[in-house]
Design brief:
The protein is of the alpha+beta class. Helix content is 62%, strand content 14%. The chain folds into two domains: 102 residues, no CATH class; 104 residues, Ribosomal protein S6/Translation elongation factor EF1B (Alpha-Beta Plaits, 2-Layer Sandwich).
Length: 293
């Protein structure tokens, strides 16, 4: 064996080791990259797939509940439409119902020490204003009342013409409740629709059962907080306070609710004989569809 061959053998061994080392390094890098890809699939792709499945399920449930809600609305819209035409915007002056209502309100204010009995309630028989197919008849009443009595009377007028719980809420109130229901329990949209379509007077007479029925469908603190805020900051609070007692029960028994839609035209006050009391003259407009003689 020549010296040249002896010298080449170590060089070949070293080269082989170097090539093997490079291959091992490359293999290690490939394994690391493969592990990274697998980790990304596990940490990102799989949760996304799970979320998509969840969203698809929620979308299906929500669609079913919306379809059911629309069906219920279609069933109830007839009765609400009839009430609007007969009581809220009648085609002839509902003078007797309006006078009977204010007589009862006057008696309630007197019983609480907020006002003297209402004097003659006058209603003009000819419309004095017309707007978008509606006509207005002025109703004027005179009384002596306290500051609390005036506030109560005006808040009562704000409730007239409202039929349901939803009518007493603003669009922002309703949007907040629907957002909370969709985030927590899409299937509960039917319970929310039933709450909003509840008759306002019947709700005021028994608010607890109506509210508890809704709360059973939504248990999260977020929705409960939104509901509580809505109940305390909307006209529902006035409805419970003003219609939830004897007055509301009498209105229900005598079928004097719902009432015709009213707007306050003017309030004239002069200082009364006692501090905090006023001689008041209140004129409101009773609105209805264009009347025909």
């Amino acid at each position: 064996m020549t010296l040249r061959v002896l010298l080449q053998r170590p060089i070949m061994l070293i080269a082989s080791f170097l090539c093997g080392g490079v291959c091992l390094v490359l293999s290690g890098m490939l394994l690391i990259e493969h592990a990274r890809v697998v980790r990304e699939v596990r940490d990102v792709s799989l949760p996304l797939v799970a979320q998509i499945t969840t969203l698809e399920t929620r979308s299906k449930v929500l669609k079913e509940q919306v379809d059911l809600s629309q069906l219920q609305s279609a069933v109830s819209v007839g009765s609400l439409g009839e009430k609007l035409e007969v009581f809220v915007f009648p085609s002839d002056p509902a003078v007797d119902r309006a006078v009977a209502f204010f007589d009862l309100v006057g008696d309630a204010l007197f019983a609480h020490g907020y006002a003297t009995p209402f004097e003659d309630i006058a209603v003009e028989t000819s419309p004095v204003a017309h707007e978008d197919g509606l006509a207005a008849f002025p109703l004027t009443l005179k009384t002596s009342l306290s500051t609390e009595g005036l506030e109560t009377l005006l808040r009562m007028v704000d409730l007239l013409g409202l039929l349901t719980v939803g009518d007493a809420l603003t669009s922002d109130d309703i949007a907040l409740l629907f957002l909370g229901s969709e985030e927590e329990n899409p299937a509960g949209i039917v319970a929310l629709e039933q709450f909003l379509s509840q008759d306002l007077l019947r709700y005021a007479l028994d608010p607890r059962s109506t509210e508890e029925q809704l709360r059973r469908s939504f248990v999260s603190p977020t929705f409960s907080s939104a509901l509580q805020t809505t109940l305390q900051s909307s006209l529902l609070r006035d409805a419970r306070r003003l219609l939830g007692g004897d007055l509301g029960q009498v209105l229900l028994e005598r079928n004097i609710w719902p009432q015709q839609f009213l707007t306050v035209e003017h309030v004239r006050l002069t200082q009364g004989q006692a501090p905090g009391w006023y001689a008041a003259e209140l004129t409101v407009f009773l609105w209805g569809r264009e009347y025909t003689e």
